[in-house]
Amino acid sequence: MPNHPKPARRFAPFLPARLKPWLALSMALPLALPAAATLPLGCLIEADRVAEVGSPVIGVIDRVEVERGDRITKGQVLAVLRAPVERASLNVASSRADANAELQAAMAAASFNRERLARADDLFRQQFVSRQALDQARSESELSEQKLIAAQEQRQLSRQEREVAQAQVWQRVIRSPIDGVVAERYASAGERVDDKPLLRIAKVDPLRVQLVVPVAMYLQVQPGAQFKVVPELPGAVPVSARVTMIDRVIDPASNTFRVHLELPNPNGALPAGLRCKAEFEVAVAAAASQAPQTATTAELSGRVPHEVARRTRMPVPGATTVSQAERAAPLPAAAPPARPAVADAAVPARVPHELARRVWARTAPVVAVSPAESVAPPTADAPLPARVPHEVARRTPAPTPGVVVAHLN
Q1: Torsion angle of alpha carbons 405, 386, 316, 356, nearest 10°?
Q2: Alpha-carbon span 38 to 291, nearest angstrom
Q3: Mind listing the pLDDT tens digit for each residue in 248-266?
Q4: Tell me: the pLDDT tens digits for 301-314?
């Protein structure tokens, strides 16, 4: 038999008007259960960043300025390597950059030759000197100008050499790249370092929370959403964390995805490495708001047959399982129950057996009768819950809230 994806919508036009409110209520109940049944998720609080600090050059450690557990700031000196040769080179480069005697001599020679050229040009106009003397004065002036430019360039080069020597010395000073705490110390003074790290630094403000979320919440969790995180630490209080990253690749084995949360930790009160419980704050609010509605719906639930309850994967709130013997017994006469708090909702009517047999999804409380009884008009005092034939319950793939199944005979 073909599988109808939306049988309730297919058969909705054939149902009486009094039956449609009950159909809508029965379809809304399963959707409200997952939000109310949201459980806290296990999580792990980690450091936001972890840096393995090493040396960019090979050398011998002169001293280590910090110990394990110390709080440090960005740019703070952590360790210093021996650098006698580099410091000597720095001193030589600094002396060369500060020397200006050559530059002063070039400036004086250039000034003298400019004045000499001006006098030679004036004497040439008065025809006291020859053109050869004028050309010689002009060439000497241009030559002194070039020597002045060379002296200025040499001084600029000396300053750059001093910067290179200073950088070589700074390479022997290991500084912290981030704010945080010293998580591990691997070396001491006198040891040779090459490509091994010296220290491990962890940034603990803010902290990062690793969370594995079921795929059913993928559309609910968005960047910037808030989670309530409860660390597994004596005396810890719940804190709010903000979603910063959502994994775009679902793990097919576990049907989950990973989420990163940002947890503020300004005073360092929470250490990294704690286990915790996280709960979606929107889901908590939705569950609180739906609690009265769920209780009202539970009052309308009746008894379901033993076969339906045995094959049901999700429990039906307020349902009572009956045995095979109880199904054959007639229902005791009872006073008609109070009408539920639904606007202008009446008790469900009775529909022919052919229609009940073709319904494949959750339906509202329906009275299934034989073809002979289908001609009888519906009564407004029909007892609640109603009865549905055993074949309908047996072939229904999902539980039917508020329905009691009876044999056809």
Answers
A1: 60
A2: 13
A3: 999 999 999 999 999 999 8
A4: 444 444 444 444 44
